[in-house]
Specification:
This protein is of the alpha/beta class. It has a 6-stranded mixed barrel with strand order 16-20-17-19-18-21. The protein has a 5-stranded parallel sheet with strand order 3-2-1-5-6. It has 3 domains: 2-193, Dimethylsulfoxide Reductase, domain 2; 198-396, 3-Layer(aba) Sandwich (Rossmann fold); 448-555, Barwin-like endoglucanases, CATH 2.40.40. A hairpin with a 3-residue loop joins strand 7 (210-211) and strand 8. The chain is globular. The protein binds ligand MGD (2 copies) and molybdenum atom. The site of molybdenum atom has 2 residues, from loops.
């Protein structure tokens, strides 16, 4: 989600969506772009579909005909990585039709003056040539936006996991700012977060140079604030930025980073161009892996394994995409020596001599520290929230001492209704973002585009879902989707094994022949990895290109070549040991 986060900061001044899920009930158009909501955010998808049943329109932009796309009034299937051209093209048509809310732009934004000249480069004919879409579909999309009183955009990894991921977010914000359809009930740009509590992590500063309370280690005032809260001498927090996951593993591979502590992630399976990860973990002198399961793709690289409790064995607060905080109280006791992650981290800190700062009796005490990190600059305010009051029900921030309501859906609105974005000027910002396309495009050597993603009944690297027999009946095995024309050209039959080779590596997967994907395009879920069999890891194939702003890898577009692998052997579900 790094791309959505960095895009919001540039466009609106602070991370996280400006609106709420409540907006769904009053929107009359949904643009779902780069998101398979039906499979990946099913609860929210059903809520949206209730509104669609009442008459709201649905546009889905996805190169693959997903379960989400099947429900759309209009499905656009652009070439992978061309969304920025499409978004600019839609705004071009809106401006041409006089759909820009000049009064809103004048009062609440800056940078519109430069936009018309920039948008002139994106007439529908050129956008059609770049995206492979029909001119009339691009026009129909713009017409539907023009006709909508209230309009929401949802997006997820189809846009974020792109070398232009941050720019995609900026282009979506441009659309909402230009039409004034933002910060009012039923309208706004709304990125969907992925992992449970991903938003909580963002607010705590776990991305890039983040500090708690939507702060940054690169900002002196933010460092001083945190140092004061923590009782640290000024200058203790380093004003440095990392270079992202991909270069971190490269530095480890080169011996520059010598130790790693891997907590609650399975990077050998989930990081792009994973041969760098395996080389890095082999080279590192000391690797600690803290996981809830003993057997993952990453645990074999550990010098020390720390057993973690899972979420339902520990107390904690989860924050969702709309700033809603929920207490998830422990419902079971952790087995064996397993402990909640916060306790393991605190114990290690105490053993290193930091007892004065890391001696907590409960998760509630940790939370009590966090609520003192509110941030008036971004509107982040949880000062009125405690575990005790969360026991009564969830609370949506901003939630200061003074507030008594649990739902606070309006952000960037002053009590008198005035709009003030989190930028220094209080105005949101238009960014002209030119389309440059993905890092890899098909060529003679690697003529196919590999797209990767998720299935409805499996979760990421399957350490949990892979053990649930009912889920394994629903999504039983790995596959690579291929269009019937391509399958015929390569004499590939159902379940034949096909090798996908990129400039980075190879995977061998059973073929699934379907016209869900376009000719020249392939799709493979990244769920099945080494624990389930050899050569299944899709991230052996993906490349290491990243968005230069958010440092997010481009997981969705890799140029590959195809080969049918001899020997018809259907894939068998390998049982997990241990
Ligand atoms: N069942 C299930 N649900 C999950 C998860 C899970 O593992 N399983 N994981 C959670 C997490 S952490 C996340 S981040 C979310 C991810 O949620 P999503 O992002 O919705 O899921 P993905 O399948 O990764 O990708 C979404 C879509 O992007 C499309 N896409 C690929 N390239 C492009 C492109 O260039 N342009 C456009 N417009 N679309 C493109 C793909 O075809 C795919 O349908 O799901 C969350 N929910
Ligand atoms: N090709 C491709 N690759 C992708 C993506 C893609 O779309 N395509 N999507 C990317 C995205 S958006 C995401 S979010 C990542 C996900 O990548 P990961 O986060 O690496 O995947 P998970 O399987 O969720 O791994 C979580 C690990 O934590 C462990 N675990 C579970 N609960 C707990 C706990 O409470 N404590 C501890 N300590 N451990 C626990 C699990 O057993 C598992 O080993 O994958 C990324 N990789
Ligand atoms: Mo994610």
């Amino acid at each position: 989600m790094a791309s959505a986060g960095s895009g919001y900061k540039l466009s609106l001044g602070a991370d996280a969506p400006p609106g709420s899920y409540n907006d769904i009930e009053t929107a009359d158009l949904f643009l779902v772009i780069g998101s398979n909501m039906a499979d990946c955010h099913p609860i929210l998808f059903l809520r949206m579909m209730d509104r669609v049943k009442q008459g709201a329109k649905l546009i889905v932009v996805d190169p693959r005909r997903t379960a989400t796309a099947e429900k759309a009034h209009l499905h656009l299937a652009p070439k992978s990585g061309t969304d920025l051209a499409l978004l600019n093209g839609i705004l071009h048509l809106i401006a041409e039709a006089g759909g820009v809310d000049e009064a809103f732009a004048e009062a609440h934004t800056e940078g519109w003056a430069g936009m018309p000249a920039f948008l002139a480069d994106y007439p529908p004919e050129r956008v059609a040539a770049i995206t492979g879409l029909k001119v009339e579909d691009i026009r129909a999309t713009a017409d539907m936006v023009l006709a909508a009183s209230e309009f929401m955009t949802f997006w997820t990894m189809g846009l974020n996991q792109s070398v232009q991921g941050t720019f995609n977010t900026n282009a979506i914000c441009n659309l909402h700012l230009a039409t004034g359809q933002i910060c009012r009930p039923g309208s706004g740009p709304f990125s969907l977060t992925g992992q449970p509590n991903a938003m909580g992590g963002r607010e705590m500063g776990y991305m890039g140079p983040g500090l708690p309370g939507q702060r940054s280690a690169l900002v002196e005032g933010d460092r001083l604030f945190c140092e004061e809260r923590w009782g640290l001498a000024p200058g203790t927090i380093r004003a440095e930025e990392g270079t992202g996951t991909i270069t971190m593993f490269e530095a480890m591979k080169a011996g520059e980073i010598r130790a790693a502590w891997v907590i609650c992630t399975n990077p050998v399976a989930s990081v792009a161009n994973r041969k760098t990860v395996t080389a890095a973990l082999e080279r590192a002198e000391f690797v600690v892996v803290q996981d809830a399961y003993a057997e993952t793709e990453t645990t074999p690289y550990a010098d020390i394994l720390l057993p973690a409790a899972v979420s339902f064995e520990a107390d904690g607060v989860m924050v969702n995409s709309e700033r809603n905080m929920a207490l998830t109280a422990a419902a079971a006791t952790a087995p064996g020596e397993a402990l909640p992650d916060w306790q393991i981290i605190a114990k290690v800190a105490c053993a290193m001599g930091y007892e004065h700062a890391f001696t907590y009796k409960s998760a509630a005490e940790v939370f009590d520290e966090i609520r003192h990190f509110s941030n008036p600059a971004t509107g982040y305010d949880i000062s009125g929230v405690t575990h005790e009051c969360l026991r009564q029900g969830s609370i949506q921030w901003p939630a200061s001492e003074a507030r008594t309501t649990a739902r606070n859906p309006a952000r960037y609105r002053k009590p008198d209704g005035r709009l003030k974005f989190a930028t220094e000027s209080g105005r949101a910002r238009f960014w002209p973002r030119a389309h440059n396309g993905p890092a890899e495009v098909p060529d003679e050597d690697y003529p196919f585009i590999l797209n990767t993603g998720r299935l409805q009944h499996q979760w990421h690297t399957m350490t949990k879902t892979g053990r649930v027999s009912r889920l394994n009946k629903l999504n039983p095995s790995p596959f690579a989707e291929i269009h019937p024309d391509d399958a015929a050209a390569f004499k590939i039959d159902k379940n034949d094994r096909i090798s996908l080779t990129s400039r980075h590596g190879e995977a061998v997967l059973p073929a699934l022949i379907t016209d869900r994907v376009s000719p020249g395009a392939l799709f493979a879920p990244f769920h099945w990895n080494d624990v389930f069999g050899d050569q299944l890891a899709v991230n052996a194939v993906t490349g290491d290109a990243v968005d230069p702003v958010s440092l997010q890898p481009e997981f969705k577009v890799t140029a590959v070549r195809l080969r049918r692998v001899e020997g018809r052997r259907s894939w068998k579900h390998r049982r997990r040991r241990g």
